[in-house]
Structures are given as structure tokens and as C-alpha cells.
């Protein structure tokens, strides 16, 4: 097994091998990723509301039967 190290950007989920290494690797490789930074997950509005529900005075959620009767 041969080890080749390089830095690259992942674009659309594809890791591009630099041209100088393309002739030195076969089709079967083992990849180990060491990320320089961790991607921060962006919460969408539903995630945000589930984590921090709005509090409204006098609010009473519908029962299952009331919701299905609509």
C-alpha cells in the first residue's frame, strides 16, 4: 500500500485528486479524511421552533380527534 498526502477542496461531495497523483493511484483506494474545521449544522425554522417553542397565553393544542376532524 502506498500513502499519498495532499490538500484539496470537496466540491459537490467529490474529492478531486491533484493531476500529479492521478497516474500513481489505481481504482481501488482507501480514504481517510481529516477535516480542518467542522461544518456547523444550520437549524431550519422547524428545528428552531421545536427547540424553542413560542409561548402564547391561553393556547390549547388541538386533540388528535380535533385535528383529524378538519
How are the SSEs placed, and which strands pair?
Blueprint: E1 10-11, E2 14-15, H1 19-22, H2 45-51, H3 64-69
Antiparallel strand pairs: 1-2
What brief labels describe this structure?
3 helices; single chain; 2 strands; 70 residues; mainly alpha; two-stranded antiparallel ribbon
Explained architecture:
- The protein is mostly helical and 70 residues long.
- It has one domain (10-69).
- It has helices spanning 19-22, 45-51, 64-69; strands at 10-11, 14-15.
- A two-stranded antiparallel sheet has the order 1-2.
- The radius of gyration is 25 Å and the shape is elongated.
Q: What's the short story on this structure?
A:
By secondary structure, this protein is mainly alpha-helical. It contains three helices and two strands.
Q: For the largest sheet, list the strands in their spatial order.
A: 1-2
Most strands sheet: 2 strands, antiparallel
> Judging from the principal axes of the Cα atoms, what is the shape?
elongated
Helix content: 10-25%
How many individual β-strands? Answer: 2
Total number of distinct structural domains? 1
Class inferred from helices and paired strands: mainly alpha
N-to-C SSE string, H for helix and E for strand: EEHHH
Between the first and last Cα atoms, what is the distance in angstroms? Answer: 64 Å
Q: Based on the structure, what is the oligomeric state of the protein chains?
A: single chain
Runs with pLDDT <50, length 5+?
none
Number of helices: 3
Cα gyration radius (Å): 25 Å
- Please state roughly what percent of the residues sit in beta strands, choosing from under 5%, 5-15%, 15-25%, 25-35%, 35-45% or over 45%: 5-15%
Amino acid at each position: 500500500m502506498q500513502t499519498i498526502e495532499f490538500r484539496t477542496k470537496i466540491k459537490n461531495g467529490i474529492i478531486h485528486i491533484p493531476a500529479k497523483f492521478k497516474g500513481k493511484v489505481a481504482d481501488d483506494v482507501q480514504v481517510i479524511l481529516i477535516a480542518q474545521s467542522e461544518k456547523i449544522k444550520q437549524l431550519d425554522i422547524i428545528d428552531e421552533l421545536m427547540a424553542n417553542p413560542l409561548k402564547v397565553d391561553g393556547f390549547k393544542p388541538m386533540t388528535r380527534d380535533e385535528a383529524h376532524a378538519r
